[in-house]
Amino acid sequence: MSDQAQRLRNLIRSQAEPQSSSTRILTVTSGKGGVGKSNFTLNFALTLQKSGYRVLVFDADIGLANIDVLMGINSTYSLYHLLKREKTIWEIINKGSNGLEYIAGGSGFNDLMRLTEAEIDYFAEQVNLLNGYVDYIIFDTGAGLSKETLRFIVAADETIVVTTPEPTAITDAYAIIKMVHSLGHEVDFKLVINRVTELHEGKQTADKISLVAKRFLGIHIPTLGFVEDDPNVMKAVKQQTPFTVAYPGSAASRSIERLVSRYVTGQMAPEPQQQSGVKAFFNKMRKLLK
């Protein structure tokens, strides 16, 4: 009850203050599983929060939702309870490591893809309450390009594609970018290369994808950053604690800090768009669900 009251106070305060921009929507995806996408999402969100931003994570991985597992938490409520109108948006927000707010997805996202237009309007109305309450809403999607993942990629303000230097991961990362582009969608993609043993390896991996995308698709895919391969990451997973919390001085944690710093200081400024934020996200989502 106290958490919900605090959220309400925060919402009232945020709406009372002039806002220079709306809540930004990010999607994090990958071409294949096993590249550390969800772990990146969680620690990226925590580091954004540590930098002074208000962040909420949506676990949109329909088949393998595990953001709460990475934090060792059993979520009481999920998106399912909102879609069934059993709970409000405020009641399904869970708190994880360092107070990070998140919404568990699970089977709820299957239901989301089958909503009627009236139900979509209700969902949009509820989630729109978060506009101004948080600075970033981050959707952690499933790996590969399912219809569900495609909708989140296209509707978001920008999409981070996580890959590793492994040849299959590189191929699959490019494949998801190519597929989205071939369907006629313009998406602000950014690359994150995970588990790099040295900076040269990460840069080489990013260049392969960027050069091919430029040559064959005619699009520029900038690199957001690299995350060093670090044994502390697996230790943290086994401890069910985010590595930036369990091992804040580790190589991987420092990598995330550099990456977030580059992102928020404007060095990776998003492409200008006519529409952005929660309302634009649902306008795009509604079109894709038709």
UniProtKB/TrEMBL annotation:
Checking InterPro entries in the record gives:
FlhG (IPR033875), MinD_FleN (IPR025501), P-loop_NTPase (IPR027417), ParA/MinD_ATPase (IPR050625), YlxH/NBP35 (IPR033756)
Protein name according to UniProt:
MinD/ParA family protein
Keyword Nucleotide-binding attached: yes
Q: Cite the entry's keywords alphabetically.
A: ATP-binding, Nucleotide-binding
Q: Which GO terms describe its cellular component?
A: cytoplasmic side of plasma membrane; cytosol
GO terms, molecular function:
ATP binding; ATP hydrolysis activity
Q: Which GO terms describe its biological process?
A: negative regulation of cell division
